[in-house]
Amino acid sequence: MKIGIFYRTDYFKAAEVVYSALKDEFEISFFKDSSENFQPESNVSVVLSVGGDGTVLRTLKKVQCPVLGIKAGRLGFFSGYLLNEIDKLVKDLKSWNFIEDKRWVLRIESEGLNYFAINDAVLLKNVEQKIVDFLVEMKDGTFYYHADGLVVSTPTGSSAYALALGGPIMLPNVEAFEITPIAPQFLATRSLVIPSSEKIRISANEPVNLVLDGDILFRTNEIFVKKCTRNIVLLRPKTYDFSTSIKEKIGYGKLILGNGNQV
Amino acid sequence: MKIGIFYRTDYFKAAEVVYSALKDEFEISFFKDSSENFQPESNVSVVLSVGGDGTVLRTLKKVQCPVLGIKAGRLGFFSGYLLNEIDKLVKDLKSWNFIEDKRWVLRIESEGLNYFAINDAVLLKNVEQKIVDFLVEMKDGTFYYHADGLVVSTPTGSSAYALALGGPIMLPNVEAFEITPIAPQFLATRSLVIPSSEKIRISANEPVNLVLDGDILFRTNEIFVKKCTRNIVLLRPKTYDFSTSIKEKIGYGKLILGNGNQV
């Protein structure tokens, strides 16, 4: 089994710990800083990503194989193992003892180019721009937003930027997009939940920034969004479940009170 | 074609207008106050409901056939025609010129009894009760809420009570439940969006009121919710679409500014 390792620049020491633990047990295809312009070979079985969610996102965009996050960053919705669980990880890799957490992603077309996004596609005005008119069109109807920006997110992205904007928490296997406006006028602050079978066109009355999973691409006044035929796969320990993760990371749905209040 | 008519008590005069317009053209199976304890015969093709959304909800619970709302109430998410469109309605009935707006509903089991709900199932404490501990359990995980109540809604119900509690707007064909807490502690104010394939158990640390589509049933500390195998069908004019309806009723996604701001 060939294994690749990407790490975040400032987690090089942590990444070396991972590399050392794996190098005698597996064939290490590469060991690279994720910010480098490096395209891994395609016969890698799994790529480990040492860093936070940003590093995992960057890794998922470079490879087609499953990705396993080793948490060194702060939040870690995408991470599977902690740095002090390397022994367990080696054991689990040998027997492929994982949950394959498959997530669907967005396909975005803009300016004749195609992209995919795991969390979200954001249209956002510059600071010096005036408030923008957005038009959302699909088979199910048409909606207008007079706002600083719009976020189209997957269920995976519902715990990212959309959550910060007031959106709901969506379980990862919900087949729906979520559109959440950024600073909308006229109290239209709610998210719109749309079947993932829809094909959505979003246009703006003037060009705005297109930001995919946090990466600024270019300015445009039109994007098309639909569900991508491709999935991504995150490897998780067998003990993983989303509800525990959301409780630990943001406290949503957590039992906070002590005894005497149990259900 | 046999047609039934249910009306809200205080809309008797409006209902008489409807009855008069239809009686020479169709066989009227019944013409009844919706609050009466009356069970229609099963061979009716369509039941007209003269009143607001509450009257349509009550009508949908009494019959298995498609229901057509004639708006006399205030909001009217469920209504199809206005009282002054009776001529068009008669014409459309003759040629069955409608959109059959099929909506999926909830099946609720509690205290050994089964119910269905079109908008929502609400668990709510009495005014004199202390804040309640709710436990939501399903295959996808477990969530706790320390709150006055919990609302489980369909996409149809997302524009009803759940909206008033801060929930998102869901397009009617989204295959997801929405759980929204009422006055939750610890900032857990967001809605949780759950695949409609889930089977949900909700328990409380003490009995609370079970309210289905606004009707108070009884007090319980356990309900089971899943998608019902049964659908309901609302008849709409061919011009109907949900996005227009939500724009007109609550202004969400509406183009509010005048010229110069069009997209």
Automatic annotation (TrEMBL), chains A, B:
Question: What residue ranges carry the coiled-coil annotation?
Answer: none
Q: What is its EC number?
A: 2.7.1.23
What chemistry does it catalyse, as a reaction equation?
Answer: NAD(+) + ATP = ADP + NADP(+) + H(+)
Compartment annotation: Cytoplasm
Q: Which domain of life is it from?
A: Bacteria
Query: Cellular component per GO?
Result: cytoplasm
Query: Record's PANTHER family?
Result: NAD KINASE
Similarity section: Belongs to the NAD kinase family.
| Name the record gives this protein | NAD kinase
Where does this protein come from, organism-wise? Fervidobacterium gondwanense DSM 13020
